[in-house]
Write a structure and sequence with these properties.
The chain contains 3 helices and 5 strands; from the N terminus they run ααβββββα. With 106 residues, it is α+β, with helices and mostly antiparallel strands. The chain has one domain. The chain is globular.
Length: 106
């Protein structure tokens, strides 16, 4: 078993709670989008490849089947895959991000 898929009942419960009403992957992705909207207070500090950024929002963009983050750095805006970002936030948002990573799988 890969380290990323080791047992983590707490994350599994969080994923189940977030996706409880989802009938397919699209609805589950929307459920994660909604969870970030409800639990995250933007802007959030973060980093991408070691560079500091500010996360302004998280959502679905351009019909991608993943969540993206609208970020700013040096007064420029970027759309970045949420998987590529480290968010330096409170424990609630950190656990939500960990659940999203786990839900997407290895």
């Amino acid at each position: 078993m890969s380290p990323a898929r080791q047992a983590d009942p707490e994350l599994d419960r969080l994923i189940a709670e977030i996706t409880i009403d989802a009938y397919d992957e699209d609805e589950a992705l929307q459920a994660f989008d909604n969870a970030f909207d409800e639990d995250a207070s933007f802007p959030l500090p973060g980093s991408v490849i070691g560079e500091d950024i500010t996360v302004l929002s998280i959502g679905q963009a351009n019909s991608r089947r993943e969540l993206t983050a609208t970020c700013t750095r040096n007064k420029r805006h970027y759309e970045i895959a949420l998987l590529d970002i480290t968010i330096h936030a409170n424990p609630t948002v950190s656990r939500l991000l960990a659940a999203y990573h786990r839900w997407l799988g290895p």
